[in-house]
C-alpha cells in the first residue's frame, strides 16, 4: 500500500469486481475515459486477474483509492499509470473519484502521492495527463500540483456537441 494520513492507494482485489463493474459502466464517465462500450463482468474479472502481472509487461498500473475509516476503509476511486514507457521513463496519469466524494481534496492527495511514487519508486522522469479543454476542475487540479501545460491537440475528442481540444500537461521529476 501507498498511503498518507488521508488516503490509501492499494492494489486491486477480486472483491473490487462489482465496484469496478459499476464504475466502468457509468456512461457519464465514458467521455473522460474514452470508453465507447460497456464492460462485461467477465472482462472486469479478467482485468483484475491480470493486474498481478508486472508493470513492465502490462505498461499500466491501476490502484484503488481508499479513505481510512474507524472499522473499514471506504473505496472512493481509482488512479492509473498508463502508457508506461520505461525506456523514456514516463507514463500518463488518470484518476477517477466517484461522485459523492468529489470536491473534498482526495484527488489532489491521490495524485500527489501517486506522482511521488512514480518518481521515487518507479524511477520515472516525467508524468503526463490529457484533459479535455472544457474539464476546468481537472485543469485546475493538475496545475495546482505543478503540472505544466505543454500542448493542445486540436479537435481531438469527439463529443455529442462537436469536437473538443485535448490539453496535455506534464510534470518533470524535481520540478
From TrEMBL:
Coiled coil located at which positions? Answer: none
Does Transferase appear among the keywords? yes
Query: InterPro entries from the xrefs?
Result: Acyl_CoA_acyltransferase, GNAT_dom
GO: which molecular function terms? acyltransferase activity, transferring groups other than amino-acyl groups
Q: What keywords sit in the KW lines?
A: Transferase
Domain N-acetyltransferase as annotated: residue spans:
7-173
Query: Signal peptide position in this chain?
Result: none
Question: Under what name is this protein listed?
Answer: Diamine N-acetyltransferase
Amino acid at each position: 500500500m501507498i498511503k498518507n494520513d488521508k488516503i490509501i492507494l492499494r492494489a486491486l482485489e477480486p472483491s473490487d469486481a462489482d465496484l469496478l463493474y459499476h464504475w466502468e459502466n457509468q456512461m457519464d464517465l465514458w467521455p473522460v475515459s474514452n470508453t465507447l462500450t460497456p464492460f462485461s463482468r467477465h472482462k472486469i474479472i479478467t482485468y483484475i486477474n491480470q493486474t498481478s502481472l508486472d508493470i513492465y509487461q502490462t505498461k499500466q498500473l491501476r490502484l484503488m483509492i481508499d479513505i481510512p475509516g474507524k472499522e473499514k476503509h471506504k473505496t472512493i476511486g481509482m488512479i492509473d499509470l498508463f502508457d508506461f514507457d520505461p525506456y523514456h521513463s514516463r507514463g500518463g496519469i488518470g484518476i477517477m473519484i466517484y461522485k459523492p466524494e468529489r470536491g473534498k481534496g482526495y484527488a489532489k492527495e491521490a495524485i500527489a502521492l501517486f506522482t511521488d511514487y512514480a518518481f521515487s519508486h518507479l524511477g520515472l522522469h516525467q508524468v503526463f495527463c490529457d484533459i479535455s479543454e472544457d474539464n476546468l476542475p481537472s485543469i485546475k487540479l493538475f496545475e495546482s500540483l505543478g503540472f505544466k501545460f505543454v500542448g493542445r491537440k486540436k479537435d481531438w475528442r469527439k463529443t455529442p456537441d462537436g469536437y473538443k481540444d485535448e490539453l496535455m500537461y506534464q510534470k518533470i521529476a524535481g520540478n
